[in-house]
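Table S5 (text form). Sequence records supplied for joint modeling of the two-component complex.
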Amino acid sequence: MTPTAMTATAEFRAAGTDLSERRRSGVSTGPLIDISAAPDMIGMHWDADGSVRLGAFTTIAAIAADKRLAAAYPGIAASAQGLATPQIRHLATLGGNLAQRSRCWYFRNPHIACLKKGGPDCPARSGNHLYHVAFDLGPCVAPHPSTMAAALLAYEAKVTTDRRNSITIGDLLGDGSNGGADNALQPGEMIRSVELPSPLQGERALYKRAISRTHAEWPLVEICARAVVKDGTFQFVRLAAGGIAPVPLRLHAVEAALQDRKATAAALANAAEQATSGAMPLPMTGYKLDLLKGVVHDLLEGLAP
Amino acid sequence: MSTMTINGKLAPLPDDPDALLVDVVRDALDLTGTKLVCGAGVCGACTVLVDGEPAVSCLMPARSAANTNVTTVEGIGATKLHPVQKAFMAHDALQCGFCTPGFIVEAASFHDSWRAAKGTAVPSREEIGAALSGHLCRCGAYDGIFRAVADACAGRFDGSDIMPPRMEARDKVTGSAKYTVDIHHDGQLEGVILRSPFAHARIGELDLAVARAMPGVSAVIALLGDDRIVRYVGEPIAAVAAINRRTALAAIAAIKFHSERLPSAVGLDEARKADAPVVFEKSARKKAGNVSEGGGAPAAWKGNVRGPSAAFSKKPKKVRSWVDGARAANNPLLVEGIFRTGTQQHACLEPHAAVARFDGDRLTVHVSTQAVFHVMELIAKRYKLDHDKVRVIADHVGGGFGSKAALGVETTTAIELAREAKAPVRVAYDRHEELSVTGYRPATEMKIALLPSEQGELKALSLTAYADTGAATNSTIAALARLIYPAEAKELADFDVISNLPAGAPFRGPGGPPMAFALEQAIDEAALRMKLDPIALRKRWDPDPNRQRLYDWALGLDVWRNRKPFAAQSGRYRRGVGVATGYWLYLWQPGSKVEVAVKGGRLIASTATQDIGTGTRTVIANTVAREFGLEPHEIEVRIGDSRLPEGPGSGGSRVTASVIPPMLLAIEQLKAAIQQNAKRQPVPGSNAPWREMLAASPDLSASSVRPEDSRQMAPGIESPLRQVGLLGWIFGWMMRRFSNLAIGAGVPSSVQVIEVEVDTWLGHVRVLNVHTGIAVGKIAAPALAHSQAAGAVIQGVGYALYEAREVDSRTGDVLSGGMEDYRIPGIADTPMISVHFDQGGFDHVLGGSVGIGEVATVPTSPAVANAICNATGVRLTELPLRPDRLIAALKGRAAA
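The corresponding structure-token record, covering 1201 residues in total, follows.
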């Protein structure tokens, strides 16, 4: 496969923190369309009901630093604080984070063909997939790279593009069955904003990623978790995980195991065990299931009173 | 045309949509303090301020800098140094300095906003670690960086300028230090190498005509060997010099060739199979590289396996029968195991790079090298030039760690392209090249058996090591187990497993860390089974006088005495303490020469060595200054230029022990000459007699060659090779004859005591505290030796926990070719490090000092593993000790 065959369609460029690396390496060679923010596409726009609309051009650093956002949506703020590095967060945008391409080391190598570059199959599946999916939901085994997508999924956020209004994160990213793409945006479709529903009374939220070092590493597993615990009982709970599947996943089995249950140590441990429900690990990614249970357990302990 | 304001001046921005800010800053504006390293936003070396906020200029389209205010490191201390710059200098928070500008920009920004919000409150390590998490330092200067940032925020560097302990620190914190990649001659072209996409193939005719005809292309050359066979993905095929990198890349893409794919074998397991395709036929074996610091002895080849190299064995048959007997008798003291280590990349932040330029028949090459003089000799030999026609220069070198000790392809390619193009040519590797084809410490599989006697002595040791050397040979791992822990019998065998992967190279104590990973865990296990204190057992089994003193120091550490019993904890987080020992050979380079001169009243010390971040400039300045009663910054040190008197290579920890003795002799001669020429003696009772004498002295110089060491030695100090008898003597003779390295008496030694915390849920290991005790004689530059010792621990933590090259075992592609996938420690991974120097043991060396670089990193990985075992009861046998492996071991199953 020649480098020119890889990405022939035009790509949008906002801050370019993902695209610049692919341009330098030769993975992306097609035309560029530089986009910049219209006034309503940047910053935080609060509604009277306490909900907020985040412009797609809002930087990750702005999301990470905003005190009102951190109070209302602590899982969003913590996720933004936990991703990449300070110098990238200052440039990178929310829309770019959602629409970024895979970090798979086969995809990022311009000399290796793969599904996402129009190739016939996924070289990671039969090759070295140490950092890949543990929920094998599609032909490509690279996990989705967007930390913000997992957080927004936990918040059941809606996305507005220049063509579609209030679509779900699932609509935006697809179900992982299309190995050739990292999202389900149509060619030329651009993310404009993200709407977060108003937070629940008494809700708390946390974010955590499992990595080998302390900071600045793509997650092996990451989870954003929200809960309302009243009188020791889970009245509401949402968990969404990244790093484990071609798209961020809601951990429905964990949620079901906790809904209306007492937050006892045994209940938390039992719920954490449910995190791997439906998992289909690859030969090298079985460890991610242990990490998944570990991160869930850690977060549930943090959310329980 | 759009513009930006950069360091207060207006500058145009290119229209090219693919131009990145880093390229505009470095190439168009020649602000080379900003460095390009990873090209992926991971390492932070390219950080600049955009409207006051730190930003990765390597990922920022130049276009988006339009109408912004950009500040580079050159703008940070332009009028007067920023407090952070002074603090970095004072705390020696840098070594090679290549990452330093990025750190300075980020730390200055953090400092300014911290001070605005919090006055002179001191930020915590966690706050500093998070703020600087987007920066990587390969030398491991983090310990000093923590202290520097905390002290600057506390307002301790608001005042006047300071004199740094490191001679060139000011140039490094201001970005004015020029490295090879920063050299720019008029008319300079950019060279790029076309590399093999195949693990094994025979390359047919190259069609270079299309590339040659492309506008902007000045030279196209073939780089294939005479057999036209490529043996790994990335082996050079051809090279192009063009007006810029993009044109050169387009030209190499236009080179067409036919190839015949050959069957390949990738890695230890594939290449050892009986039916594995052979990488080097007999006639081609000379093409293999060398992974050791010296030459090696011949060994038998069988297919892709070279070995055994077993000359350091002692009664090996006895070992076999005793171990077999012990196993049959279920002797509980017999420790057996298989240990594996990962492939460690040097990951120098300055890539391998060379800039070649011909002026008539004179060739000047700036090279990012560890050996200016030796590389000059090699260039002269290869191109049949006289020594005085070749000049190799390396003012500053952005890390080497063993990978830049030889004449590299980047240098020969730059020379050959410059000759063909009749113009200066730069070749600077990109990050993928740097992390794939520039060498590595080979992965290993080691089988060990250790048998104590009934009396509790070490009776027998067996160690067999297979090294994953790629297209190289001469791994020395098992043999190193001969020179420590004497035993009645030792069976030591080294094998190279050659395969279709890039060639390994020497890396900081080459076979020492893997050997220690196996041996020091086996010793730990023996102590457990013998119910003995692991340090006390080492003290019993290891008579070396330098290490005996270190064991006494270690036994007295609170962290050791207060450690919890073995595997006594049951919670999620468990803490443990481990110990391990390391040693390296004391090497020096015969023929090393130093000239010391007084010129215009100023002292100048010259030798053709180089400073790769290890502190050689400062070692020289400190020594001269001390002898004359002056300040180090009053001394001018000339190094990094092959025209100076022959100096040592920066490898094998040899520089300090090679330059101090001849320097002291030269100083003695110079002092005598100054006194002879003095018209009057200094005022009696003067505090600075030499300052007065020097001021009045005519220009004089003296030089001396490295003398042999004294034969008068302290008790127990001898050449480690003495233990190996006649074969040891032959080995020493060969090293001196063929590698120009003398193996001296006395053994540089280290003992590390390490405390870890294990998160048993997430498989995460945090190294909390490291006590590193080091015996390398007198410390010539204390602050810098501390930096070396701490940096060695941090690299050792990387080797222990994070670092491993990953490849595709079918195609031979290196997958971990970027800094996000090849994971080196960040600042927040730095433990508290306490350094203890035992300054005895080398009084037979003039000046009493030997090198520290390698010995300081040897014991870290086994000490971490032993600490994890102490905490959890689980012994981890494969490096790196990643979460997946720790989780698997805790659950009692095999990792993938």
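Note: Chain A has twelve helices and eleven strands.
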